[in-house]
Write a structure and sequence with these properties.
Layout lengths: L2 E5 L8 E5 L9 E10 L2 H8 L13 E9 L11 E5 L8 E5 L4 E2 L6 H21 L7 E4 L5 H12 L3 E6 L2 H8 L5 E4 L5 H8 L5 E6 L6 H5 L2 E9 L13 H5 L4 E3 L3 H4 L3 H16 L7 E6 L3 H9 L6 E5 L1
Parallel strand pairs: 8-9, 8-11, 9-10, 11-12, 12-13, 14-15
Antiparallel strand pairs: 1-2, 3-4, 3-6, 3-15, 4-5, 5-7
Length: 323
């Protein structure tokens, strides 16, 4: 029988249990997927801890890739042995799973299953942030928080390809070099540098039109201070914890700022949106202009160890769970 990571109660990494599961046959509109790799993301931590509640018990994981082994009634465009990937539907920490066929995209030969598992959610998130939430233009200077993380490295490379100047925050000199090698023009080591002052210095006091912030509580208010008048604060994650409530008048006081908290689901809700996002990602990765850096690999059964490393900020780039 196949195995999966199951969560029966929310809490720390120790609640991630390796168990045998019954998968069964796919229902109408579903396929059975034999997974080859799953991605690790901070949203998995939010699900595990209960910050983003899920019905118990559940299998975490929102990103993966593998091979179709069975097809349910009514499924069009997919068949057995097709290589596919997804970023979104929960249940990825499993050897086999059922999944709605309309949330899957076919993988081109140029993209391996490990690559796909490392980049689907993060890469489509980057595509959403750069091309829809705030459409980055050549000549703009932008700020990327956690520039050496999975989304951060993709954002830096893609924004650079679009002609932007990229400022990024990182936690160490090693991560600064990693970010620099992936398109970040000005890595700021936030543990010893004031990133607000550095952004002002780099931009000659003009600040930036957009901040992409996946860190949350620890950086949110200072991120607002980096924005030019009518700038866009894009809060897309909260790795350090949720942002505390604040009066919206602060946005007016700091320059009539815009604030958004986007989710990939709302930007890839239709089949056409999903395919556009995935295909743009596949194209830019296949071109070599964006490289997906798999920096850590853990066996799926060792998901708890992977979560500990992620929460301790001991990871950089992307992490995959191998199956």
């Amino acid at each position: 029988m196949p195995h999966a990571i199951r969560v029966h109660q929310t809490g720390g990494p120790e609640v991630l249990k390796w168990e045998e599961i019954e998968v069964g046959k796919p229902g109408p509109g579903q396929v059975r997927l034999r997974q080859e790799a799953a991605g690790l993301n901070f949203i998995d931590v939010y699900h595990r801890t209960g910050l983003y509640p899920q019905p118990l018990p559940f299998t975490p994981g929102v990103e993966g890739a593998g091979v179709v082994v069975a097809v349910g009634d009514g499924v069009k465009g997919l068949k057995e042995d097709d290589r596919v990937a997804y970023g979104g539907p929960i249940g990825g920490y499993a050897e086999d799973r059922l999944i709605d066929a309309d949330r899957l995209v076919k993988l081109p030969d140029t993209i391996s299953s490990e690559q796909a598992a490392a980049m689907m959610l993060q890469g489509m998130t980057a595509q959403m942030l750069l091309r829809s939430v705030h459409r980055v233009q050549a000549g703009e200077t932008i700020l990327v928080q956690a520039a050496a993380g999975g989304v951060g490295l993709i954002l830096c490379q893609w924004a650079k390809e679009l002609g932007a100047t990229v400022i990024g925050t990182v936690g160490s000199d090693e991560k600064a070099e990693l970010a620099r090698a992936h398109g970040c023009d000005y890595p700021i080591v936030y543990t010893r540098q004031d990133f607000v002052a550095e952004v002002a210095r780099i931009t000659d006091g003009n600040k930036v039109p957009v901040v992409y912030d996946g860190v949350g509580k620890d950086t949110f208010m200072k991120s607002l201070d980096c924005l030019a008048r009518r700038g866009m604060m894009v809060s897309y994650g909260n790795a350090s914890g949720p942002v505390e409530p604040f009066p919206t008048t602060i946005l007016a006081q700091k320059g009539s700022l815009f604030l958004t908290r986007p989710t990939l689901y709302d930007y890839a809700i239709t089949r056409a949106e999903l395919e556009t996002s995935a295909n743009e990602l596949f194209d830019i990765v296949a071109s070599g202009k964006v490289k997906v850096e798999i920096k850590q690999r853990f066996a799926l059964k060792d998901a708890a160890e992977a979560h500990r490393a992620l929460e301790a900020r001991k990871t950089s780039g992307s992490t995959v769970l191998t199956i």
